[in-house]
Structure formats: structure tokens, C-alpha cells
Q: What sequence folds into this?
């Protein structure tokens, strides 16, 4: 499966026997993990990759039809695991990757030992029936229109909102550069798939022990979402970070590392 290694720009680092698969969020790539990987390299084997359409993946492998739902991204995860013959993995997913990883684990629970979700959401839309997702449908429509009409404008609007650490302006600029470096058409399609998704019905099917890391002030995922997940995901542990924003592994790597290590040592 060498083509998968090239297609998804798969990178393997670290010295341990236990494997951590790290999956990036929307609009990003595997470089988002650079501040936390050094803390795990000695004890774990780390697998990094880019989803097709993101980062340094093979863009020619992207198909709007295949990636019109989470199914295409779930297949990317399973392909990467198959290509490296991985089993018993600890899957670390940021944002949208939390649900992608969960769906992959529902499909093949025996291949996943634990899940770690950073800023996860099963549904970004408020549904009017007591569920707070954080966005109205009109918000998402405006977001998608902005991406279509002025992609760089969208990036400069979205980066500070998502990072939410104005005292660290260099992190916001780096995130903006990452957003802008993506293919505008693919990024918009991924955004639509992400923000209009609803995977609340699948939560009951998940059996893999899961850590939910929720930021204290996240513009993308309100605290109510993390609490909802904890309530509906069996075998889940909920931790509220002091970190603000949607990228604690970038803005607050030490706290993120501590929380992950504490969970992994609970065995």
C-alpha cells in the first residue's frame, strides 16, 4: 500500500511500541502537531498524515464525490492504518477528526485501543430542540459564501476567531497561512461537510474508551457540546482545559500534553 503512504503524506516517528495516530482538523495538516509530538516520541510510535485534499497530500486523488461525506475521510484513516498494518492504536483527533476517528472505530473497534478527542463536536448546528451546537444554519451559509467569494478574507477572519489567543499573534498568523495554503475549492467542500454534519446518532455505537478535551472558551465548539458528548459517549472521560480557542495543542501544548499523558497512564 505504498500509494497510500505517498497519497496521504504518511510520516512515522518515535521509538515506542504503542502507536498513536494523530489526525488533523479542517483546513490544517500534520504540522499542527509539531508542539506536542516531541513529548511523546520517546515512549510512543507516532503516525502523522494529511487527509486527501489537505496539506501535502496528493490533490489528484481528491474526488468531490468520495469526500462529500465523512466516509471518504474515514477511509483515509483506515487506509493509513492498513498500509502500516496498525492495530490496537490510540487515535488522537483534533476537531472534525474526532468524529472521523470515532466512525472509523465504530467500523473496526478491535483496531482502536483508545480515542482522544480535542475540541470535538458531533453537530455544529443548533437544532432548536435543546441542543447547542454553536452555529445557526445562516452562519454556516455566510461562512461558505465568504470562502467562495474571498478565500483569503475568510482565512484572515477565521484564524483569530478559531485561535482566540490575541496575546500570541504569531500563532494566529501561522494558522491564517495554513488556511490560505489550501485549495479553495476543496477547503470549501470540506467546510460544508464538516459544519453541516450531524453524527449524534452514531455516538451510541461507539465502544472505545474516549477522552474528551474541551477548551474553556472555544468559538467553534461551546462547552455544552463537550458535555453533550460526555453524556452520550459511553466509556468517556471529560476534561475541561484552561486553554482558550480551538487549537490547544498549538496555543497551550504543555496543558494538552499533561492531560493526554494523565489519561494514557490510567491503564
A:
Amino acid at each position: 500500500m505504498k500509494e497510500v503512504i505517498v497519497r496521504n503524506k504518511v510520516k512515522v516517528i518515535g521509538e515506542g511500541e504503542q502507536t498513536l495516530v494523530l489526525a488533523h482538523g479542517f483546513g490544517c495538516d500534520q504540522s499542527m502537531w509539531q508542539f506536542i509530538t516531541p513529548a511523546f516520541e520517546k515512549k510512543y510510535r507516532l503516525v502523522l498524515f494529511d487527509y486527501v485534499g489537505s496539506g501535502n497530500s496528493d490533490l489528484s486523488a481528491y474526488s468531490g464525490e468520495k469526500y462529500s461525506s465523512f466516509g471518504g475521510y474515514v477511509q483515509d484513516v483506515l487506509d493509513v492504518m492498513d498500509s502500516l498494518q496498525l492495530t490496537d492504536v490510540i487515535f488522537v483527533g483534533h476537531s472534525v477528526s474526532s468524529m472521523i476517528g470515532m466512525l472509523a472505530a465504530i467500523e473496526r473497534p478491535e483496531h482502536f485501543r483508545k480515542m482522544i478527542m480535542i475540541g470535538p463536536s458531533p453537530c455544529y448546528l443548533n437544532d432548536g430542540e435543546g441542543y447547542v451546537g454553536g452555529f445557526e444554519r445562516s452562519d454556516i451559509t455566510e461562512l461558505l459564501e465568504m470562502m467562495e467569494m474571498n478565500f483569503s478574507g475568510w482565512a484572515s477572519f477565521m484564524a483569530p476567531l478559531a485561535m482566540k489567543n490575541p496575546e500570541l499573534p504569531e500563532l494566529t498568523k501561522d494558522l491564517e497561512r495554513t488556511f490560505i495554503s489550501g485549495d479553495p475549492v476543496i477547503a470549501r467542500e470540506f467546510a460544508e461537510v464538516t459544519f453541516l454534519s450531524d453524527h449524534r446518532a452514531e455516538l451510541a455505537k461507539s465502544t472505545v474508551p474516549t477522552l474528551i478535551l474541551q477548551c474553556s472558551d472555544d468559538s467553534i465548539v461551546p462547552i455544552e457540546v463537550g458535555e453533550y458528548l460526555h453524556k452520550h459517549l459511553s466509556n468517556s472521560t471529560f476534561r475541561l482545559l484552561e486553554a482558550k480557542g480551538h487549537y490547544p495543542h498549538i496555543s497551550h501544548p504543555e496543558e494538552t500534553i499533561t492531560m493526554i499523558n494523565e489519561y494514557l497512564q490510567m491503564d
